[in-house]
Design a protein that fits this description.
By secondary structure, the chain is of the alpha/beta class. It has 22 helices and 15 strands. The longest helix has 22 residues, at 473-494.
C-alpha cells in the first residue's frame, strides 16, 4: 500500500503549501467577495462555513484529489458493506447499521441486520415506557424515579454527553446520574441523595469485564441490597447493556433484563446502540428515534454527496491540510451552547482514541502527523481561560465553533437576550482569529508605542463554524455522525486503523500488577520511582 506522503496529490499539497506560505485570510477575503457564501455546505440541519480556513480553490482541488487517490469512497463503501476494516481486531465496523431504518434494512453478507437492531430498540422502548409510566416498579413496588448508568469510556461519554445536550427534552421527573470513575467519590456523589427503593441501575459494559465498571456495579449492588435488605431486589433494580450474556448472568442480573449489542459496534461509536438506554429513558423512545434519524441523515449524506459538498469529508480534508501541511497538532472544539458542555470531552475520545496512532494498517511506522490533541470548553467560558494562546500563542490551533440560532434557554434581562451575547461572541472570535489586528490598526487606536507589539493579533488562524437552527435530538444525532465520519475520513487518509485502541491496554495490565503492592511490601518490585511512591503511600495508609 502506498504511503500518503508518496501520493501525487500529497506532493501537490506540499508544493502548494510552499508556494502559498504568505497566503492570508485577509487577502483571500479581499480578493473574493463571495468567499463566505461560496465556502458553505449544508446538510442534516447543519451549516458548515469553512471560508475561514487558509485554503484557496487550488488547495481544495488538491485535497479532493487526495480523497480520490486514496479511494476514499471505496473505503466508505467497504465500511457500509460490513467488510472487516478493523483488521487488527478482525471485526466489521457497523455503527451505521444501528441507525438503519426498519423498513430499509441493512444487509451485510446476505443477512439483514436491521431486524435484530430494531428488536433490541423495541425492547428498549417497551422497557423505557414502563419505567417512564411507573409500571416497572422496584422491589418494594415503588416506581422508579432515579436512573444510575454505570459505565466508562464509550459506555459513558456518549449517553452522558447526549443527556446533558438534550436536557430540555428529558422527563424532569426522572433523575439521571452517570458513574464512570473507579474513584469512590464518583459513586458517592451520584447516589448520595437517591432513594435505593426508587433507583434503577444500568450496568453498561460491552465486555462486562471492565475493572472500573464492575467495581462500581458491585458498589451499587451493596448500596441497594444493603438498604433494601434483600438480595432479590437486584432483579427489579438492575439491568445490563452488554454483549456478554454469560458475565451478566454471573453478576446476578437476569439476562431477560439485558439489552444486547454486537461486537461490530465499537465502544466510542455506541451511543446509538443499547448503550443509549439511559438516554432513551430520559428523552423517551420517540425522541430517541428522532436522534437516530439525525445520524441516518448524516450517514446518507456521507455516503452519497459529492466530495465538494460532503460535510464529513470537508471537515476531514481541512483537518489534514492543517495537521500535515500547516503543522497544527491540536484542534479546539468550542460549542457556544452550554448544553454541549460535554461535547468536547466526547469528541476527545472519538478522535484521539480513533486516530491517536503511529502505526499504519500494515504495521509500518508513520512519518506524518496523525490525530490532533482535541480539547475545548463551551464559549464564552473558554474565552476567559485559554483563548489567549489560540489568539497570540506560538502554536496555531484550528478551531471548530459550534452554535445554534434558537436557544432552549431564552433568558432576557432589561431587553438584553443572553443568547445574542453568546452568538455575538461566537462570531467575534472566528473574525478575530481570521483577521487579527495589525500594528498599524493598533497604533491608529492611539496605543502607546511600547504596547503595540503586545496588542497585535497575528490573525490567519483557521476555523470552521457549524450552525444549526436549534439543538434537537435529530441535530445532535447528525452532529455526532458528522464527527464520527470525519474521524473515519482522516483515518483513511493517514492509513491508520481508527477502530482499535491497543494503546489503552498496557496501563490496565500494569494497574493489575501494582494493585497488590498498595497493600503489601512483599509484592514484586516495579521500578525505583514507582516503588518509592508505593512505599510513601503505604506508610501513610496503614
Ligand atoms: C471505546 C473503548 C473504551 C470502552 C471502555 C468501556 O471505544 O473501547 O472506551 O468503551 O473501555 O468498555 P466496556 O463497555 O467493555 O466496559
Amino acid at each position: 500500500m502506498k504511503q500518503p506522503t508518496e501520493l501525487t496529490s500529497w506532493k501537490t499539497l506540499a508544493q502548494l503549501r510552499d508556494q502559498l506560505q504568505h497566503l492570508t485570510l485577509r487577502d483571500l477575503f479581499r480578493s473574493d467577495p463571495d468567499r463566505g457564501p461560496r465556502m458553505v455546505a449544508e446538510q442534516a440541519g447543519w451549516r458548515l462555513d469553512y471560508s475561514k480556513q487558509i485554503v484557496n480553490d487550488e488547495v481544495l482541488r488538491a485535497l479532493f484529489a487526495l480523497a480520490r487517490e486514496v479511494d476514499l469512497s471505496g473505503r466508505v463503501e467497504a465500511m457500509f458493506r460490513g467488510e472487516r476494516i478493523n483488521a487488527t481486531e478482525d471485526r466489521a465496523v457497523l455503527h451505521v447499521a444501528l441507525r438503519a431504518a426498519r423498513e430499509e434494512g441493512f444487509v451485510v453478507d446476505g443477512v439483514d441486520l436491521a431486524p435484530q437492531v430494531h428488536a433490541v430498540l423495541d425492547r428498549m422502548a417497551e422497557f423505557s415506557r414502563r419505567v417512564r409510566r411507573g409500571t416497572w416498579t422496584g422491589h418494594t413496588s415503588r416506581p422508579i424515579r432515579s436512573i444510575v448508568n454505570i459505565g466508562i469510556g464509550g459506555s459513558d461519554l456518549g449517553p452522558s454527553m447526549a443527556a446533558r445536550a438534550l436536557r430540555p427534552y428529558c422527563d424532569e421527573s426522572l433523575s439521571l446520574r452517570f458513574v464512570a470513575n473507579v474513584d469512590g467519590a464518583d459513586f458517592d456523589d451520584a447516589v448520595r441523595d437517591l432513594d435505593p427503593a426508587e433507583t434503577l441501575v444500568i450496568v453498561s459494559s460491552k465486555t462486562f469485564t471492565t475493572q472500573e465498571t464492575m467495581a462500581n456495579a458491585r458498589a451499587a449492588r451493596q448500596w441497594l441490597v444493603g438498604a433494601l435488605g434483600d438480595e432479590r431486589a437486584v432483579a427489579r433494580h438492575f439491568v445490563a447493556v452488554s454483549t456478554n450474556a454469560k458475565a451478566v448472568a454471573a453478576f446476578g442480573i437476569d439476562t431477560a433484563n439485558m439489552f444486547e449489542f454486537w461486537e461490530w459496534v465499537g465502544g466510542r461509536y455506541s451511543v446509538d446502540s443499547a448503550i443509549g438506554l439511559s438516554l432513551m429513558l430520559a428523552i423517551g423512545p420517540e425522541q430517541f428515534s428522532d436522534f437516530l434519524g439525525g445520524f441516518r441523515a448524516m450517514d446518507q449524506h456521507f455516503r452519497a454527496a459529492p466530495l465538494e459538498r460532503n460535510l464529513p469529508i470537508l471537515l476531514g480534508l481541512l483537518g489534514v491540510w492543517n495537521a500535515n501541511f500547516r503543522g497544527s497538532q491540536a484542534l479546539a472544539v468550542l460549542p457556544y451552547d452550554q448544553s454541549l458542555a460535554r461535547f468536547p470531552a466526547y469528541l476527545q475520545q472519538l478522535d484521539m482514541e480513533s486516530n491517536g496512532k503511529s502505526v499504519t494498517m500494515d504495521g509500518g511506522a508513520v512519518s506524518w502527523s496523525t490525530g490532533p490533541v482535541v480539547f475545548g470548553e463551551p464559549g464564552t467560558n473558554g474565552q476567559h481561560a485559554f483563548y489567549q494562546l489560540i489568539h497570540q500563542g506560538t502554536s496555531v490551533i484550528p478551531c471548530d465553533f459550534i452554535g445554534v440560532a434558537r436557544t432552549h434557554a431564552p433568558v432576557v434581562v432589561d431587553g438584553v437576550r443572553h443568547h445574542d451575547l453568546l452568538l455575538a461572541n461566537l462570531l467575534a472570535q472566528s473574525r478575530a482569529l481570521a483577521f487579527g489586528r495589525t500594528a498599524a490598526e493598533v497604533r491608529a487606536e492611539g496605543t502607546r508605542e511600547d504596547l503595540v507589539a503586545h496588542r497585535v493579533f497575528p490573525g490567519n488562524r483557521p476555523s470552521n463554524t457549524l450552525l444549526a437552527e436549534s439543538l434537537t435530538p435529530a441535530t445532535l444525532g447528525a452532529l455526532i455522525a458528522l464527527y464520527e465520519h470525519k474521524v473515519f475520513v482522516q483515518g483513511v487518509l493517514w492509513g491508520v486503523n481508527s477502530f482499535d485502541q491497543w494503546g489503552v491496554e498496557l496501563g490496565k495490565t500494569l494497574a493489575q500488577q501494582i494493585l497488590p503492592a498498595l497493600a503489601s511490601a512483599d509484592a514484586p518490585p516495579s521500578d525505583s520511582s514507582t516503588d518509592g511512591m508505593l512505599q510513601w503511600l503505604r506508610d501513610r495508609r496503614q
